[in-house]
Design brief:
Blueprint: E1 3-8, H1 13-24, E2 28-35, E3 58-60, H2 63-66, E4 71-74, H3 80-85, E5 93-96, H4 106-112, E6 122-123, E7 129-131, E8 134-135, H5 137-140, E9 145-147, H6 151-165, E10 169-180, H7 187-196, E11 202-204, H8 214-225, E12 231-238, E13 244-252, H9 258-269, E14 275-277, E15 295-302, E16 307-314, H10 318-333
Parallel strand pairs: 1-2, 1-4, 2-3, 4-5, 5-9, 6-9, 10-12, 14-15
Antiparallel strand pairs: 7-8, 10-13, 11-12, 13-16, 15-16
Helix pairs in contact: 1-10, 6-8
């Protein structure tokens, strides 16, 4: 059995990545792609790397065009997804790659995004610890509405959740600094940065606790910790196209050793195909993740200040967005979780 698929907003970075992953998935049949300014153009005009769909034409984003698909991916700007989702039939599996349905708190939505809170869908991070050994995966089975996590959120959450769940670190002294590829800021930002800064640049942005991913990070980590968590999060935009490297630090509880930390992380992720721990003393790079659905984690203790350091690398467009969507979709449909995600690395293909 194959499932018919539509991608709304397929002209952007996330839409293009979804097309690449859908092309590799044996159970998905792409039927429709929509866009705004690119209506009537071919997919090849924006995404030449997805040769399988080169001649597919971007259509207008309307209720009629999106009707009748088994699966609809929403790769739309924030606040637009809620409007489009309202058009779709309850029987369709809908996955929102934007922020519209991630937050549980209406107050957080209004503070960081503004406007009406659209509600909360099942959260699409299977590995998230949500109490003891329970994970978010169980809540994804059979669901019809999935909110795909933010890319920065994924790198921080996967990097810190086991330590918080096990009570190894304090909840209110957590600092995360992320080096972020330009594709996470949208197609326009990618093109602009490489035009203006061709020799390389790194720029902190959304500094001072104002980044929109902050409440989502705290929402996740609070579930893992079983208590309120506060995070100071600063993203740094670098002139690389893909990838996130999250350096997360947290104040350790007294008596915690690196051996205890490794044991906790190994136990938390030993059955997770898409989360890998680096060997002791080694740390991942974004280059190792390009095109893959893996989160790679390195662990250390800074004994001088008694802090845990976790380094988490992901591809922001795969594990950070498109791959997370496909992984969660597989679970919701009852397919093996790794379907379509095991041979997608761009590094291995020389891209």
């Amino acid at each position: 059995m194959t499932f018919s698929v539509a991608v709304a907003g397929a002209s952007g970075n996330v839409g293009g990545e979804l097309l690449r992953l859908i092309a590799e998935h044996p159970k998905l049949e792409l039927k429709t792609v929509t866009a705004s300014s690119m209506v009537g153009e071919k997919v090849s005009s924006l995404h030449p790397h997805v040769s399988k769909y080169a001649d597919v034409i971007f259509k207008e984003n309307t209720a009629e065009v999106l009707a009748g698909h088994d699966i609809v991916f929403l790769a739309l700007p924030h606040s637009k997804s809620a409007e489009v989702a309202a058009w779709l039939d309850d029987d369709s599996l809908v996955l929102d790659c934007g922020a519209d349905f991630r937050l549980e708190s209406e107050a957080d939505w209004q503070k960081f995004y503004g406007g009406k809170h659209a509600g909360t869908w099942t959260y699409g991070m299977p590995e998230l610890l949500i109490g003891g050994d329970k994970k978010q995966r169980e809540l994804l089975k059979g669901t019809k509405r999935i909110a795909v996590p933010g890319c920065n959120v994924t790198a921080i959450t996967i990097g810190l959740a086991p330590a918080l769940a096990a009570g190894l670190v304090q909840n209110d002294d957590i600092v995360s600094v992320l080096t972020v590829g330009t594709s996470g800021a949208g197609r326009g930002a990618t093109e602009k940065l490489f035009e203006i800064e061709p020799t390389g640049s790194a720029d902190a942005y959304q500094v001072g606790g104002i980044h929109r991913h902050t409440p989502e990070i705290e929402q996740n980590l609070s579930k893992s910790a079983g208590a309120a968590v506060q995070v100071n999060f600063t993203p740094v935009l670098a002139s690389i196209e893909r990838g996130i490297l999250a350096v997360n630090t947290a104040k350790l509880q007294d008596g915690v050793t690196i051996e205890m930390v490794r044991e906790v992380y190994e136990r938390a992720y030993k059955h997770e195909e898409f989360v890998n721990l680096s060997e002791s003393g080694k740390f991942p790079s974004t280059a190792e993740t390009i095109g893959d659905n893996y989160a790679l984690i390195g662990l250390a203790i800074d004994s001088h200040v008694n802090r845990l350091v976790t380094v988490c690398a992901i591809d922001n467009l795969v594990k950070g967005t498109g791959g997370a969507a496909i992984q969660s979709m597989n679970i919701a449909l009852g397919l093996p979780e790794n379907t379509g995600l095991t041979n997608i690395s761009l590094a291995k293909k020389g891209a």
